[in-house]
């Protein structure tokens, strides 16, 4: 079968360019012609995910030298394509990568020649991860949930996993929110007439499994020297911790040290921690209006820059100097800005 290759963003191939270096009648072996960005686009993943796959599963450009740009041949890309197809058929990622590496080049699934229409993203080749997560939750299958979430965290990081996988799955799994709960992302549960208890137990399993993955120790940069850290606390009476756990997982991935106090922290304890711990910025999470108390958060402001996080604060008027945070990205922006400015710059400026 003739091999036809798609070569977006080509760079000049290395080696013999005359096309006469191979055996008579054989197609010449072309040098690396794919950039990492082109391969990522072809597979429908981010370049960061591509790097993670290379590091974790040992697949990538052959003969790559450290410190130089990565360039991929058709054969290199075929390994990724084969791995994604196997993964799409339900095979675990590690097994799919091993089989793809061992597949002879002549039988590997080659890139398809369609410049205007890249190969479908990996997430479309199989059931969408959100669908898989919701299905596993309704089966009360915590092991499958943890496998999907952990793989996403490894490949794309905690912030992307939280926004693109966990939040939509939670929105589809639990019962419709009440007005006090604040808005939920995504569509309502697929069957609003299903047994409410079934929604609740599925949401409990999903929440527990996501929390376990977010709090699981991972390979992170070496621990920094003692110094100011972001301090995370749920307001007194607030038991919803999952979004705060996502922030606690995402901050170290950006090299920002964090300290977590946990759920339902009494206001005097938050005040004590802000005064006695070296705090760069304090995030106080409130999921509902019942736990969002502007008067109490105002007393924390003299000790450290304060950010009110979560939907509970949406209808509250915040004291001067307290910044409102409505998303994980917003919280990360505040932390980056304040912690890069140094301890002396206490007041978070407007985004």
Key traits:
351 residues; alpha/beta; Multidrug-efflux Transporter Regulator, Chain: A, Domain 2; Rossmann fold; 3 domains; five-stranded parallel β-sheet; two-stranded antiparallel sheet; 42% helix; disordered N terminus; disordered C terminus; metal ion binding
Which CATH top level class of the largest domain fits? Alpha Beta
Superfamily (CATH H level) name of the largest domain: Cobalamin-binding domain
In the residues, how many domains can be counted?
3
Our estimate of the beta-strand percent is 5-15%
Radius of gyration over all CA atoms, rounded: 24 Å
- Give the CATH topology of the largest domain: Rossmann fold
Average of pLDDT: 75
What structural class is derived from the secondary structure elements? alpha/beta
What is the number of strand segments? Answer: 7
Order of helices and strands: EHHEHHHHHHHEHEHEHEEH
Gross CATH architecture of the largest domain: 3-Layer(aba) Sandwich
Poorly predicted segments? 1-30, 113-127, 177-196, 343-351
> In angstroms, what separates the terminal alpha carbons?
57 Å
Number of helices: 13
The major sheet is characterized as: 5 strands, parallel
Helix content: 40-55%
Strands ordered across the widest β-sheet: 4-3-5-6-7
What global shape is seen?
Answer: elongated
Pfam family, one: MerR_1
Region (Disordered): 1-31, 95-126, 169-196
Protein name: MerR HTH family regulatory protein
GO molecular function: cobalamin binding; DNA binding; metal ion binding
